[in-house]
Amino acid sequence: MTERIAAIAAREILDSRGNPTVAVTVALDTGVTGCSAVPAGASRGEHEARERRDGGKRFGGLGVRRAVANVTETIAPALCGLPAADQAALDARLLALDASPNKAKLGANAMLGVSLAAARAAANAARLPLYRYLRQSLFPSATGWPLPTPMANILNGGVHAGWSVDFQEFMVLPQQRSSVEQVRCGAEIFHALGRLLARRKLPVTVGDEGGYAPRLPGNEAPLKLMASAVRAAGYRLGRDVRFGLDPAASEFYRGGMYQLRSEQRSLSSDAMIRRYRAWVKKYPIATIEDGLAEDDWSGWQRLTVALGKTVTLVGDDLFVTNTARLQRGIDQGVANAILIKPNQVGTLTETVAAMRLARRHGYGVAVSHRSGETTDTFIVDLAVAGQAEYLKAGSFSRGERVAKWNRLMVIAEQVAD
Ligand code: PGA
Ligand code: ZN
Question: Catalytic annotation on 341?
Fold first, then answer.
């Protein structure tokens, strides 16, 4: 049965930082509905699709009433009557309606809300869990259910934590076989880290992604602390747990140099690469995301030559879930994995295109949340459907982060049956 879109509603809700964001409900002619809520970044890439914000006084300019009106007044009339299961046609219609190079007209927040809610409605109509529906409709050639390894950001810095340190994210990557054991391992290390900080009289308050955010002397101190926490929790470094870094280097790249305020020094691209190479020898670092800035292509090439054989080098601000930028990376031998954030590009179809392109060229895939999140868990189902190697969803505190890990454990239980 072809179920068609009958109505689209949208509203302004709050994200995990208390800022407005867009929530959408798509209703089909049979009465089946699907909802979504759009996340928002803080360390956004320069080349991301633009979200629509109202400006003015309300919410310090961050209101999304215009984006909501774009959904109800412009998008809804154009999409009603289309089959909900034809994601490609829906997203093509959205792109035609916007017709701007960066989604600035309708807003990527308005477009993504509709795109994801339609997919959910179609999954509900098909009476399938979302991940199974996405697999069947968007990744039909994938077989089996290998589940993504959690990338859990237990120590926050940079713009997510008042610049406690310069590097934005220090992650643990639990290596156990089951998702349930991985989540347990990560949570136990998180708590061990909390006890360790408390003993040193450091604050145990958390940053935007739920990791601790103590002010520390420089960017290596978090790695030392995490190594101690792993041991204190009874796990073996390297064997049971690896580390991941997201320096988010674009955020402190000024005038061709990487300005590390917590260390009062500034490093060239090559000095940054030397630092990563030294750290990879000292700590079990498996992934480095945005180790260099989004437009430092030549630095990225040298980084990839230096570490690309042994470390997963993930492009986030570098690629912004954009196939054109990813293709440039592939052509120039830059990075070997992509971070996938649906709201960087604005539609599900374009998101999946980036995942497919990565796959075709042997690039790894990490599906990711944003620092401003809601309890929507769409990304977890997307990661599972598309067989992403990693799921990046923050720490083991803050409900909007924990919702993702809990969803992963539910899916793990279902696919094991
Ligand atoms: P953002 O940061 O969601 O604030 O952009 C996340 C990241 O850089 O991975
Ligand atoms: Zn990042």
Answer: yes
- Identify the CA nearest to 223 among candidates 264, 162, 176, 278: 278
Sign of the torsion formed by the C-alpha atoms of 130, 131, 133 and 137? positive
The residues facing 10 across adjacent strands are 24
Closest ligand 1 atom number to CA of residue 371:
3
Q: What is the pLDDT of residues 115-153, one digit of tens each?
A: 999 999 999 999 999 999 999 999 999 999 999 999 999
Local structure of 167: helix, strand or coil: coil
4 contacts 28 by C-beta, under 8 angstroms: yes
Tens of pLDDT, residue by residue over 88-124, are 999 999 999 999 999 999 999 999 999 999 999 999 9
For ligand 1, the distance from its centroid to the CA atom of residue 171, given in whole angstroms, is 13
The neighbour count for residue 224, using CB atoms within 10 Å, is 12
Interior angle at CA 415, CA 411 and CA 417, nearest 5: 125
Phi/psi region, residue 398 (left: phi>0; alpha: psi -120 to 50; beta: rest), is: left
In whole angstroms, what is the distance from residue 27 CA to residue 35 CA? 9
Taking the C-alpha atoms of residue 97 and residue 111, their distance in angstroms, rounded to an integer, is 10
Q: Take residue 302 and report the two structure tokens written for it.
A: 């040298």
First to last CA, the chain: 28
Instruction: Name residues whose C-beta falls within 8 Å of residue 102's C-beta, 6 or more positions apart in sequence.
Output: 48, 49, 50, 108
Taking phi over 0 as left and psi of -120 to 50 as alpha, with beta for the rest, 223 belongs to alpha
Is residue 181 flagged as an active site residue? Answer: no
d(CA 180, CA 144): 18
